[in-house]
Amino acid sequence: MISLANKPPRFLIKPSAVFAFVLLTFSQLYADLKEGKVVFEMYCASCHGPEGAGLIGPNLTDATVLHGSSHEEIVAVIQNGIPSKAMPAWNAVLQPQQIDDVALFVKSIMGKNLPTPVLTGESTVTPFPKGSVNRPLLMRTFMPTLDLDDDVFAYHHDSRETPKYTHKTAYFDPVKRDRPIDGIPGAITVNFGNQLSYCFDSTECRLLYTWSGGFIDMTNYWGAGSGNKRIKFGYIGELIGATGYLAKGKAPLAGKPQFKGYRKVNSIPEFNYTIGEVEFTLRIQPGESPGDAVCHYTSKNWKGKRQLEFSEANASQLSSDKGTFNKGILTLSAKEAKSFTITIKAQP
Questions:
Q1: Residue 147 located in a structural domain
Q2: Which domain holds residue 312?
Q3: Which InterPro entries match (predicted)?
Q4: Does residue 292 lie within any of the structural domains?
Q5: Between the chain's N and C termini, which has fewer beta carbons within 10 Å?
Q6: Distance, CA of 241 to CA of 224 (rounded, Å)
Q7: For the chain, how many structural domains are there in total?
Q8: What pTM was computed for the model?
Q9: Cα–chain-centroid distance for residue 230?
């Protein structure tokens, strides 16, 4: 019989190494949670509230959430969305790591049971939100497609009918169907008062349309005052005013778009995104006349002379302070593309 009492261990792990490993693990977890909170506040807070307690979307701080409470289920909902509930799919907007971080953050706030700030009968919100030239209002909400060309939505997936779902009984009806909503889930819309409103698509990373004379009537979605007058599946706001510009045809620059986020510079939203290997920032401000839009671009990794090919149908509305414009095609050198401005005149 062999005694193991005095036999040295095959592997020796120092307590200090274990402590270092645990510390590193918790440090990484904290970093992921922190990043998840940042991404949540940027992309999710407009519907779910900054603390996840619900706003126009459900309260995520309940002990259980509607479509599953495991990390994997939360990731799946963020990636694929819930079309019947107007929850957009974020897999074309967020990186896999960002989605994982957001799911981690959502998991961390479940069970806090924070009170929903807007309760039926207590809301005094106006269904007519509005900004100003000095303090524009940015909203992330579902926007109408305005019958834009299919080419404009090249990177949007085709939605399909889904089984009708009853959340109270967690039942999927095998016969009844919920139809897709004809709206833009990745829309970011900004209002400068009556002078200019615009809709930017964070999936396509392009300006879709502009209008002036008002902003959006959100009655169907938000209700009026006490929350009444809401319409079932009325998630899409109605434009107030006259359209000035409608994007047509394919994106001006070929390449897969990837939205990176936005920041505010002196209250003006500035979008950051890539088209292929080219990095862009875009800041849009009102022009001289109602509906005019002044689009300030900066770019990196623009090599040699390249072209931005706008639809010829939009050509008469566009001008640039750099490069040469010919029938909707803007040619820019690498130097010119570092910073340039395209002005859009509103269609009469």
A1: yes
A2: 137-344
A3: Cyt_c-like_dom, Cyt_c-like_dom_sf, Cytochrome_c_Oxidase_Subunit
A4: yes
A5: N
A6: 20
A7: 2
A8: 0.65
A9: 24
